[in-house]
Amino acid sequence: MILETALFNYESGGFNKTSRRHEFGKLSAAFAHLTTAPAVIVQCEGRGYADLGGEGLYGAAAALSETLGVRYVGLLGHLDRGPIAPAVFYNPEALTVQSWVGHGAEGVFDDWRNIGWFTVNATGTRLGVIAQHWDSTCGDRRLFEAKQVGRYGRHANPVLVYGDLNTSASGPHLPQRNWHDAEPQCRHHEGIDVGDDVIADTRALDYLIGAHDEHCGERHDDMGFDAVCELAHATGTPPELAYAPTVNRDVVPNGAIIKDWLLANTSLAPRYVPGTYRVHLPPDDPQKRNSDHNLVTAAFDM
User: Fold this and answer.
1) Nearest to 162 by CA among 24, 289, 19, 38
2) What is the DSSP string of 99-148?
3) pLDDT tens digits, 59-97
4) Are residues 160 and 261 in contact, defined by beta-carbon separation less than 8 angstroms?
């Protein structure tokens, strides 16, 4: 079975600050062009999705179901920084949920949170889904969050990390920021001072996928995860497509980078289907954008 999957940071989860309600027109528009409905969709920034009896969560699931023509069930995640936890939407015809530790779960270890275990109905394969939205202001906090999921990198079952990780990884092949033009907020939140210069703080993502060695062009000292964009390039996707930024230049003027990542563990990486990783770039007109981040999709042979 080919399992299609998607990651999308839907800005504020469609929450309208004026009406105090949710709007899902742009969520639907972001997915309307897909020809195959993903079996799993992870959406970041589910703002207020637990309020009013879960109106936001159920509304997003309904919008995706209508747009893609399959039924989605929503699972709301946990976030201790505010009401913008990630949400997982899955197709119960394709997957059966075994467990989900998310919103409202008490008495659980931190490295269980936002982790779901599913059975692929067609094959019986057990799949782990980890939904993440790392801290945007603190590299030390991001490294801590990475360490919470590091042990799943060499798990016996396939595991996929989805998330707006608010950071890049090391390596000159990836899109880079222009740190000389970066505002102080960006430098302090996403960079590290090195003497009179600033470099990207890549510690958290490098912890999971390994630091890039510029001499041999490989990553080392990883926790067992591979970035799916790098799997894509290694299997024939041109670099301009494999390393397309997931945040656009009108959102980040000093350098559009990859912030939204799919990370496959050692059991899942060989199942990546070449040619399926894609960053769905938006129209040039910012007024027609569906979010401040771009939709990311990929497929795996389960």
Assistant:
1) 38
2) EEE-TT--S--GGGTTEEEEEETTT--EEEEEEEE--SS-HHHHHHHHHH
3) 999 999 999 999 999 999 999 998 999 999 999 999 999
4) no
Residue that has been written with the tokens 């990370």 in this structure: 263
The pLDDT confidence band at residue 254, using thresholds 50, 70 and 90, is low
Q: Which amino acid type is present at position 132?
A: Q
Q: Check residue 182 and give its pLDDT.
A: 76
Beta strands 73-76 and 87-90 are antiparallel
Instruction: Specify the DSSP class assigned to residue 281.
Output: P
CA distance 279 to 268: 20
Tens-digit pLDDT profile for residues 17-43: 888 889 999 999 999 999 999 999 999
Residue with tokens 């996707």: 237
State if pTM tops 0.85: yes
Report the C-alpha gap between 54 and 50 in whole angstroms.
Answer: 4
Structure tokens at 104: 């409202």
- The sign of the dihedral angle between the CA atoms of 300, 37, 247, 118 is negative
d(CA 300, CA 120): 12
Quick one: which of 259, 248, 257, 245 has its CA closest to 284? 248
Query: How far is it, in rounded angstroms, from Cα 30 to Cα 260?
Result: 15
Using the predicted structure, report yes or no on whether residue 175 has a pLDDT greater than 90.
yes
Beta bridge partner(s), residue 100: 116
